Amino acid sequence: MPGSPEILPLKSIRLLALNSQGLPDAHFGKGKKGALSVIQHLGYVQIDTLAVVARAHHHTLYSRLPDYKESFLGELMEKDKSVFEYWSHAASYLPMSDYRYSLPRKKLFAEGKSHWFAQDKKIMKYVLDRIRAEGALQSKDFEFKRTGPGNWYEWKPAKKALEQLFMDGTLMVARRQGFQKVYDLAERVLPPDVNTEMPTAAEYAEYLVKKAVEANGVVEEKEIAYLRKGLKESVNKALKKLIKSGEYKEVRAEGYGDSPFITSLEQLDAMEKLKLKKDIHLLSPFDNLVIQRKRLQRFFGFDYQVECYVPEPKRKFGYFCLPVLYGDAFAGRFDPKADRATKTFYVKVMHFEKGFKPDDKFNTVFAEKLKAFATFNGCTKIKIGEAEKGWKKEITKKLKD
After folding, report:
1. Is 81:299 a contact under the CB 8 Å cutoff?
2. Which of 92, 164, 207, 352 sits in a 20 to 30 Å window from 172, CA-based?
3. Where are the domains of the chain?
4. Exposed (0-12), middle (13-18) or buried (19+): which is 290, by Cβ within 10 Å?
């Protein structure tokens, strides 16, 4: 039928998604500049506190930059001021070049929206007055020993105030000390040339559309404002405008009937030149490629859930399983543990996807990637636990080569 949207094969969509994520091969450069390029391109890198292996933000960057060092993020935030911490769909590192697009959310909190708990204006003023007078402070700087019964410490109200002032944009994270936030006044953290102009609803929606397509290749409209409320109408208007301009177009995905997906002409041109590279990536559970689980299931057929939040008796695979991407498909997942004290990296359990049989080529590349990842985690030894019959012996042999 003339004018019908183009139908894209799922294999092409997968290749486009991986290329947009920078996973077939690193194309962001090297070193600290490369790390900044990753964050600018993806739009965010999610922060997570769990440290079973390298924390999610470091892990995600390492997956795209083999020479990545954990010191890069601290330097980019504190010294270069080219990234900052705030909220995307979750707590994240964001490019400072996109700072103005954090302002709509901050405005909501400044106008009274509470961040998980009710605002306490008195404590907020106290916290702010101290930081204004003393300089950057951590939540522990507000702890005080109570002299009354119980001899307990009362710091939670101040921590809540710090987070509220952070969410409304009054405070920013100046740096991390250990893994603890150090807060300072936004005006003392922001570089002088940063754009602080509030975007219009239309500008913000258009930014979200373009960033989503740039980072993912092909997206559904509902994915664009993932975990962001109140943006459905403005995103829809932005999409119609961009499609009308000819820069973007609706397509269909093979096997998904009339469900519309959005991409750009630039992405479609890139898709024509893509070739599959049979590499392996050991991804974080919070990696940008896997964080939208329904998308992951739809395009890659990979049913994934991080089970650290699932009661132990109900876990199917393990506490913190890492997805194993092989070429354009997921070969399996494994439950890891980096024991820094003994410098031992454990693969506690290895699960392969139904129908996947690891051959010699897979085992060779997996062993190389596992050794590199163990080194990144400060480990010099690797121990393999439960796995399919025969695989433990094969991969142990490869690890010794």
Report:
1. no
2. 207
3. 100-189, 200-273, 280-400
4. buried
Token pair for residue 82? 């080219």
CATH fold of the domain at 100-189: Arc Repressor Mutant, subunit A (1.10.10)
CATH architecture of 200-273: Orthogonal Bundle (1.10)
- Mean pLDDT of residues grouped by 10 in the chain (401 residues)? 77 95 83 97 96 97 95 97 95 98 95 80 95 96 63 66 96 94 98 97 97 96 85 94 96 89 94 89 97 95 95 95 97 98 98 96 98 98 93 96 86
Q: Kindly report the CATH number that applies to the domain delimited by 280-400.
A: 3.40.630
pTM: 0.94
138: helix, strand or coil: coil
Topology agreement, domain 200-273 and domain 280-400 = no
Task: Please give the helix or strand (H or E) that residue 346 lies within, else none.
Answer: strand 344-352
Helices 31-42 & 56-64, crossing angle to 10 degrees?
110
